[in-house]
Write a structure and sequence with these properties.
The complex is a heterodimer of chains A (207) and B (227). Chain A has 207 residues and is mainly α. Chain A contains eight helices and no strands. Chain A is globular. The chains are: A mainly alpha (207), B mainly alpha (227).
Chain lengths: 207, 227
């Protein structure tokens, strides 16, 4: 499969649309594009480390992929956070855009390589890995909003947030790498987390 | 490996203690799993409770950082335990280490937010940090991955220094209520070091003590910054 060709195909209309939209939408689009770019970059880095370490595909997914992907996903957000000092709302929507962009491109690559004929596979893919990437990006965005209240803690806080997202991603990859009931638990994990997340945020807002 | 362990000055003490407390191999694994499961459940519960209660405190961000510390640690333990159960072997260097080491950064941030930076550092804060570095260096020379041990040592030493500074500032009336919190941090660091130096049943005991230490850290901070 040629991921670069797919990348160009998806990104071209977005780049053409970029100058024609205004402030908030433009920023969202920009981060969506960067999410897609980061996904392609992480595919390269994962392949590189897989070749260097000599690990199998499954072991790479459990040990290396979470670290590479989460670091690369955090980088555009961290840059935006440190250089532009955005408002919490802008930071949050940017984090969502990076996560959605990443998940969209990854899903496209998987569907192209495995086929999109099976609706259950497509749904599982969309609701598990797709949601997982969005959840990780949301957690990173939410964490950065907290850090923004104490700027001197930015570096320390960013390391902590990275550790959180990497581990969550690794738990998901570990669960889906094993056949049987564990895999289904893994598939359900992101959606369950998303539901808990929204319920928890609602409770905090109410209290 | 055995030669390295023979060099360990605590080897004899721990081996003897292990003999006294010795159960079967199965007992050890079951006990270790039970302790870890209790740890994961209690940490997640406490973490969510802290986030909800943080608004009632004088320093909600510091409290939230501590909640993130224990939840990050629990996530690492969850990964480790799942890996052990699913792959039938413990992971050597994995995301669990990332989570465990990363969780230190949250509590360091929490300590700084409590105001320790604005005061001078007493000599015993450097002593605590130095002691941790020395012990971790010895451990690194005896067994394990050198860089991984170093990655553990850095945040542990920084946290020890923060806790020492915290004990020092607790002399002030303003920070007096935080003294139990900083003592809990020092105690949990001590148990953590002991976990590096032990194995078998002794390890499980220190793991349980460490869990209690972390829970007391949470409760003492909540009491210290609460109204």
């Amino acid at each position: 499969m040629y991921a670069e060709n797919l990348f160009l195909c998806i990104i071209m209309p977005l780049i053409v649309a970029f100058p024609s939209v205004k402030s908030e939408s433009r920023r969202f689009l920009g981060f969506l594009i960067s999410g897609i770019c980061v996904c392609l970059l992480s595919a390269y880095t994962n392949s590189f480390f897989m070749a260097v370490s000599g690990l199998s595909y499954d072991d790479t997914a459990v040990f290396i992929t979470p670290v590479c992907e989460e670091i690369l996903k955090l980088l555009p957000l961290l840059f935006y956070f440190l250089v532009f000092e955005p408002s919490p709302d802008s930071l949050f929507s940017s984090a969502v855009a990076v996560g959605v962009g990443f998940a969209t491109f990854e899903n496209c690559c998987y569907l192209l390589s495995s086929g999109a004929g099976n609706i259950s596979f497509v749904l599982i893919r969309g609701l598990s890995a797709g949601v997982m990437h969005t959840i990780c990006a949301l957690a990173a965005g939410y964490g950065l909003i907290y850090i923004s209240k104490v700027k001197q803690m930015a570096a320390i806080g960013a390391l902590g947030i990275l550790a959180l997202t990497v581990t969550y991603h690794a738990v998901f990859n570990l669960l889906v790498s094993v056949e049987g009931i564990t895999r289904y638990v893994g598939f359900a994990l992101p959606l369950a987390t998303a539901l808990c997340w929204f319920a928890f945020i609602k409770k905090i807002k109410v209290s | 490996m055995n030669l390295a362990l023979d060099c360990n000055i605590l080897y004899v003490i721990f081996t003897k203690t292990n003999i006294i407390l010795k159960g079967s191999v199965m007992d050890f694994f079951v006990l270790e799993t039970v302790v870890t499961v209790i740890q994961i459940i209690s940490f997640f519960t406490l973490g969510f409770w802290l986030v909800i209660k943080s608004k009632d405190t004088k320093n909600p961000i510091a409290v939230c950082f501590l909640a993130m510390r224990i939840m990050c640690f629990a996530l690492g333990s969850l990964y480790y335990e799942l890996f052990y159960l699913l792959k039938k072997a413990p992971p050597y260097v994995s995301a669990a280490d990332v989570a465990w080491i990363g969780s230190f950064y949250f509590i360091i941030a929490s300590c700084y937010l409590l105001g320790i930076k604005s005061h001078k550092t007493p000599f015993y804060a450097y002593f605590f940090a130095g002691a941790i570095v020395v012990v971790m260096l010895i451990i690194s020379l005896l067994y394990g991955h050198f860089i991984l041990n170093l990655l553990w040592a850095i945040p542990m030493a920084v946290l020890a220094k923060c806790a020492g500074e915290g004990v020092y500032i607790s002399k002030n009336e303003e920070y007096k209520r935080l003294l139990p919190f900083f003592i809990s941090i020092i105690m949990s660091l001590f148990y953590e070091l002991m976990m590096f130096l032990s194995w078998g049943m002794v390890y499980v005991i220190f793991d349980a003590l460490w869990t209690v230490g972390i829970i007391s850290t949470v409760l003492t901070l909540y009491k210290g910054v609460g109204d």
